[in-house]
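User: These chains co-purify. Model them together.
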Amino acid sequence: MQDLLSRPFDENPDLTARRLLLKGHNRDGLPEIAIGLCFLITAFSMWLQVAFQPGSLPYREAALILGVLVPAVGLGSMWAIKKVRRHFLIEQEGYVKLKPPNRKRLVIVGAFSFLIAVAMVVGIYKRALPPASWILAGTGIGGGVLAARAGRLPRYVVGGAIMAATGILVALSRVSLEKGYMILYGSMGILSLLSGCVVLLLFLRRTPEAGE
Amino acid sequence: MSRNIQRLTEIDRIIHEPARLMIVALLAAVEEADFQYLRLATGLTQGNLSTHLSRLAEADYVAIEKTFRGKYPLTICRLTARGKEVLDKYRKVIRTAL
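Assistant: Joint model of the two components:
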């Protein structure tokens, strides 16, 4: 309420609405739990690459986990969060039907992700990737900035700062790329999962007020 | 500049009120939302939100439908075409005047 009352003219109503929607989306901790699970699965696939010889079955399964399981859990979690909210949390959270996603934006994000994936594959194939420490630091800082910017809430900003710091520390420790990613994603996965569970428990403990 | 400032007098006073503007802006960003969701998102009290929604419904900016999802009573609110039009005009006036 303070947001708009204290500065009614400094931004347009769409930005205010977007901020309120985002706050509502992150209110129950479920998105953090989903992100934590994705990070932990990614860390697990990295661990498989670190612990097993190249060419072995677990090593090859790691690629399958990264290529299939992580995107499936990522996309499936959006659907699952919606279902859980509609079936179990409707009294606490209320009901909202969002507008269908903006197709133009989806195409841009999809094309951008595809280009990055292609650049990575070409880099690996031609052995022209920058040093592992650069990639690790870049992932930590980039992921941290993205988390802080996308989540906006203080806990996301703190999580983003921790991710950036972890990325830099891992980069400075000169470990291999796989080990570095395992540490980075593993620690962020545990942090995100714990934070999401605490937020969810606190949210569930609040007594819901009756709707109109 | 002064002519632009004068356009502020064209502002719709019903949605110019910050709490109502917040409700209308939120409803413009979604297809529909129920009372509880709006209450949590805006941080308004039940009484306050109820009064503002009634005012917006009276002006035909918001359509309110009372229904059930299982045993849970839902008061679903959505922005009407008139509400969208008024919000668009409000945006334009604010943008040009300030």
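The two ends of chain A are 20 Å apart (CA to CA).
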